[in-house]
Design brief:
Elements: H1 6-23, H2 30-38, H3 41-44, E1 48-51, E2 59-63, H4 65-68, H5 70-77, E3 83-87, E4 100-101, E5 105-109, H6 112-121, E6 130-133, H7 139-147, E7 153-157, H8 160-172, E8 178-181, E9 194-203, H9 208-212, E10 214-225, E11 230-240, E12 243-250, E13 277-281, H10 286-289, H11 291-300, E14 305-310, E15 316-322, E16 327-334, E17 337-343, H12 348-361, E18 370-374, E19 379-383, E20 390-392
Parallel strand pairs: 6-7, 6-9, 7-8, 9-10
Antiparallel strand pairs: 1-2, 2-4, 3-5, 10-11, 11-12, 12-18, 13-17, 14-15, 15-16, 16-17, 18-19, 19-20
Bound molecules: S-adenosylmethionine.
S-adenosylmethionine is lined by residues 106-110, 115, 133-134, 136-137, 139-140, 156-159, 162, 183-185, 200-201, 255-256, 258-260.
Amino acid sequence: MTEPDVESIAAGLRRQLADRLAAAGRLRSPGWRAAVEAVPRHELVPRFYAETDAPGLTTWVPVTPELVGLDEWLRLAYADETLITQFDGREIDWADPQPVSDAHPTSSSTLPSLVVRMLEDLRVEEGHRVTEYGTGTGYSTALMCHYLADDRVTSVETDPHVSARADANLARCGYRPRLLIGDGLGGAPGCPPAHRTIATMGVRSIPAAWVRQTRPGGLIVATLRGWMRSLGLVRLTVEDEHTAHGRFLTGDPTFMMARQQDAPASFGMLPAPDEGATRDTRYGPEVLTMPDSGFVAQLALPHARHFSLSADDGTVSTYVLDARNDAFAVLTPDGDGWAVRQGGRVLLWDAIEQALALWQDAASPGPTGFGLTVTPDAQHVWLAAPDGPSWRLPA
Ligand SMILES: C[S@@+](CC[C@H](N)C(=O)[O-])C[C@H]1O[C@@H](n2cnc3c(N)ncnc32)[C@H](O)[C@@H]1O
């Protein structure tokens, strides 16, 4: 029996992946197509966890050639899926890998359709210097090395183990970008300003260092996130070392958040039953979770989180808590509608209702109807135009 030829199977799967990404409109230019066809994702992510579609708690199962067989391992490595390589900031015990649930992924190879879309959106040209934040497995870093050249690519990773693994795998594949270890929210120390900046982790606002370290006229592509949900992908043009502006390209992608910006473990105590003032409201908790109104709610409440709790009588209430402002809103079904009880330094549900009213006056656009302006003093997401209604992002 002859050994299966991993390299030729992988090359075929890469071509199929490129075809699928092109058919979906994600892969648009020959240069990025050549990169997808060349970069061996299975070498950069040789073992990983894949999400199962079993009902209930999200569960991930380990994938290696030994566990699932060579063909299935390669098929999954070239699927348009996120491949998880770390949970809760801890290294995986690959000597005895077990299914994982009730955990928080902290490093991965992002799904290729999103990586490629972001790279296309970055409008990279020959000779450009690019800085990436969130090296992860190094897959996106390798795509950029292939498209440009090793010495044009810098990538910053906060986790030394993750960076070391990416370094070794990239080197084995023949890629030698500049890899830095550190908190990318502080930029890429010692690097000259880049023509392009890309982040494959979510941030609550654009770090000042990213603007400072991108050349005037250069572009930043990143995803903004809040503690309730992702806001979406933005592309900013840098004006000078403190100022940038641009629009949301989509509201879809969800990235794991920069580790230093994760939501606090506790949002404080639940309000006592007699705390706050109660009134009717026309909005139920669905405005927090529907795609477009959820985007607006996230802008209105940058420091809040929400969750549901059942009372002994079966009534389900939604709690919105903001520990920073010591504020709460509790939504409870009331006849055919909803009642809200709120208290604290900020009236959270009033803030949501005001934001939704402004949004509806503007014909309720999706995320692409919004933009972002970064100045030395503040960052504002605006609706329709820079002088339209706006919401300040957390610094
Ligand atoms: C979604 S993964 C990156 C995917 C990667 N580009 C790839 O193609 O494999 C996000 C990465 O960002 C890293 N990260 C989180 N916070 C960071 C920070 N403040 N600075 C740099 N990297 C960070 C995580 O450790 C994780 O490896």
